[in-house]
Write a structure and sequence with these properties.
The protein has 332 residues and is of the alpha/beta class. It folds into 2 domains: 2-223, Rossmann fold (3-Layer(aba) Sandwich); 227-291, UreE, C-terminal domain (Alpha-Beta Plaits, 2-Layer Sandwich). The protein contains 11 helices and 14 strands. It has helices spanning 43-50, 72-78, 94-104, 109-122, 138-150, 168-183, 195-201, 219-225, 240-247, 269-279, 294-302, and strands at residues 2-12, 18-28, 32-36, 58-63, 66-67, 79-82, 156-160, 187-192, 204-209, 212-217, 230-234, 252-255, 258-262, 288-290. The strands form 3 sheets. It has a 6-stranded mixed β-sheet with strand order 6-7-8-3-9-10, with helices on both faces. It has a 4-stranded antiparallel β-sheet with strand order 2-1-4-5, with helices on one face. Strands 12-13-11-14 form a 4-stranded antiparallel β-sheet, with helices on one face. Strand 7 (156-160), helix 6 (168-183) and strand 8 form a beta-alpha-beta unit. Bound molecules: adenosine-5'-triphosphate and magnesium ion. Magnesium ion binds at residues 43-44, 84, 160-161. It is a peripheral membrane protein.
Length: 332
Amino acid sequence: MSIIEAQGLHKAFDDGTVAVDRVDFEVAEGEVFGFLGRNGAGKTTTVRILTTLTRATSGQARVLGLDVVKHRSEVRDRIGLSLQQAALDPLMTGREHLQLIASLRRMRPARRTERMEELLTGFGLTEVADRLVATYTVGMRRRLDATLALLHGPQLLFLDEPTTGLDPQSRRALWSFVRTYRQSGGTVFLTTQYLDEADELCDRIAILDKGAVAVIDTPQDLKKGIGGKVLTLPATPEAREPAASVVGETACRFTDGVLQIDLPAGDDVLPSLLKRLHDSGIPLTGVTVTDPTIEEVFIRLTGEGLERRTQSDGSVAAAALARTVGTGRGGV
Ligand SMILES: Nc1ncnc2c1ncn2[C@@H]1O[C@H](COP(=O)(O)OP(=O)(O)OP(=O)(O)O)[C@@H](O)[C@H]1O
Ligand SMILES: [Mg+2]
């Protein structure tokens, strides 16, 4: 069953910016669906439409079988949302945030207390629960925001760039949480700029380019679809031109001190290619040959790589919380 259906979803802002350009996709129940794109690709706008925070200019979206415009409050009751810009009040404590959301969600007092303790423990926030959010690290804020999204036990979770700004350890902890949530029956719609994250975590990935979906597939099939392996060698920018004359303009790229060449399928091409590169004066020290990554898929589809953001410090995130899913309704 599709838990999210988007048909011809289109969002143009008053200033003429087209943030989402006639997008179609479906998300099946129980999958982790990755929405991948560089800054400004339209990820957050899509999440905002699906979670009823903004209206599409045209097109339709159904979430849990409900139209997001006609059944706004039912959709809100049944989903969890952790936005890229968490709306936390620095002058409230973590626990006060949870209490506020529990009241807004009309949770029964007994269930509320049990659930809050479960989440605070699971996300490693017990010790800081009574501190003002102003004193929290980036990682703690992210984790608190996740607990708020999960408090009422939603069966569908939207995570907008959940790991941006987290250190590697915190990122992995969040991945582990997402996996556990999925194993317990939850569905996740996750936006990310990290290609490794999409590859690791997602059952299927949509690559978004300037508001439009360039492709949707499993990470495995995306990589398979681009065919042969990739040859990488340390080089100077000047090496690109002779390499291009050997392999063709579109099959080679220079980035960050390395030259990358897309190899045609088949094992027999490598020796003759290496000889031709050598003959054209390119030093071949440090050559590696690897399977294509999602990054290469992304580059081939969109013409360039993803802008990487610097990761700032955060602290240990999200212990897995399997019992998050299942109640599925507000007012529990
Ligand atoms: N309220 C608004 N008014 C006008 N343009 C907007 C508005 N909100 C977003 N945009 C524009 O819409 C486009 C898509 O923005 P969006 O925030 O959805 O991208 P994103 O993929 O989430 O980017 P990021 O990775 O930086 O979070 C951008 O060009 C952005 O500047
Ligand atoms: Mg965004």
